[in-house]
Every structure is written in structure tokens, then in C-alpha cells.
Amino acid sequence: MKICVNGYGTIGKRVADVLAQNPNMKLVGVSKYTPDQDARIANMKGINVFVPAESVGSFKSKGVEVFGTVDEMINEADVVIDASSDGKGVQNKNSIYAPKNKTAIFQGGEDESIADISFNARSNFDAAKGRKYVRVVSCNTTAYCRLLKPLTENYAIKNIDAFLIRRGADPSDSKGSALNSVEWKSKSHHAHDVNTVINVPMNSVAFKVPHTIAHINSMRVEFDQAPGKDALYDLYKNESRVALLNSATTSSQIMEAARDIGLNRYDTYAVSLLMNTVQANGNSVFMSFYVPQESIVVPENADAAVAQAGIMGREESMKTTDKILGMERIKRELESIFA
Question: Does one domain contain both 158 and 288?
Fold first, then answer.
């Protein structure tokens, strides 16, 4: 499968790294629209950089090696992963991918109407087979799906109330949330977004706070008959993309641990369930979890391409992606550090 990444920012550069290592894929290259440090980093990594035709001279004058034009890159690829900024994906679909009859994968910043299906590997892998356009849901929605899908397979859920503490900006951003303010949305999009993948009764409210490390989410789940804390631990212990942390008390501890164990860009890819926040009361359970917003959707993008093409089943695809990312080691070491 020849695949390219249109957009080489926070998500795009991480996705490109994974695709380049997947034995079922050939990374044609990535697009860049500005001759900046990321373009030179792609050159250093041996990733082919494609640019707008009118910008070839500008890139070369800045010392960036150009492999071809964005148009040439997309023509060569079987699948395009669109990792452009929010809202740009729909423009690319209408002006480039659809006219060229190209299969494409979009990110959660786009409206659900852009795609035939919203995707989470753990939740609805098989439903993406043969779909022309797939949308990988956002970082927080990915975390909710990874936690809720196993619950729905084992318990009857009556209601979910979700509370999100959203980071204000990514670490690389020079702009973001206000320095001395907390912003909120009383009915955030996350509940609806989860329901584009899993049918569950859910409400959500989101608070944006001025920090950069990760999102922290909490949810109260009401059941017909609620599982206890031990039952939840047993439910998630074999989920490869869920880390069970017993003793972590701050997001900075988790980020620092990721740095100390040598994870590239301190990316954990997993949702970390904070077991010391889990409380089972009657027919409800309360839990909180850490969401690494820069990396959690990276494995989903690789799996989405595999699911579209139908070249592997869910378990094989997830195992292949997890092996590339070192998920077994990440889960094991984080759980050991925060035992």
C-alpha cells in the first residue's frame, strides 16, 4: 500500500514515523507548505518532502531537499492521510482527493460529515473496510472509546457523565489558552463524537486550562449493576492501549516518567487509567484518566489505513502497530513505575 501524509505537524510527523516502519505500507512522503525546521527534520530522517509547485524554489533556497510537488505525491499514493490543520481537511477533500478519486483518512478536528465512518480501532475496526473516507476521532474521544468499548461488551451502561480538563495548547505551540483563565463548554462535542463510534447515553462538559502536558478526563458511569474496582482492573489489564497506573498523582509525573524511560518525544500512545481515582459507589463508577494528546491517535491512523484496505483483521493490525510503537514495553514500564 502506497501511502502519504498531507501535513507534517504534531500529528502528521508522528504518523509518518509509524507508517515508514509498517511492512505493509510504503511511505511515499509528506507534504510541507513552509520551509521550516520540520521540513529539514524530515530531510534528516530520509522522508521524502513534497511541496506546492510554486514553492519549490523557495524551499530549495532555504536548504530543504524537495522530492517533488504535493500534487505528484498524492497522485502516487493509494491512500492519503490528511493531517492538516482543523477545517483544512474538508477543503482538501473537495478540491484534491475527490477529483483525483483518492481514498483518504481525516483527523478528529474535521466534522463527522467529512467521512463515511468515524473510526476507533478497538471499537469499530471492521466497519471501516472498503470505506472511501474515514475519520479518526479526536484524542479525547479515542481515549473514551478505548475505555468504554470493553465496558459495553461486559456491562449494561445506563448513563455517562464526562468531565474534561483540556490542555490549553500543545508544547510546540506559541499560542493557546489564556494565562489567567479557565474556559469551558457546558455541552462539549465529545459526547456526540463518542456516539459516532459507540452508541452510549453520554453527556460531557470540557474545561480548558493553561498547561500543555496532557488532557485529564473523568467520567461517572452508571450501570444496571456496576463492576467493582478489581473487576475494572481485570477488564483493562489485557487492553494493549490502556495503561493502569496505581500511584500517579500529577500529569507531570507521567510525562517525566516517559522522558526517563527514553520514549521518543515522550509519547506514550496509551490512555493511562488512574486507578487511585476509581471509586465504585452503588451502581456507578467514577474514574479519571490521562490522555497524551499529541500521540494517542497515531496508532489509530495506521490501523485505519489497514482496516480500509481489508489487508488484516483487527487483532493482527493492532498487534503490528503496537509492535512498531513498542506498546508492550510502554504499558509494562509505566505500570511498574506507578505500581
Answer: yes
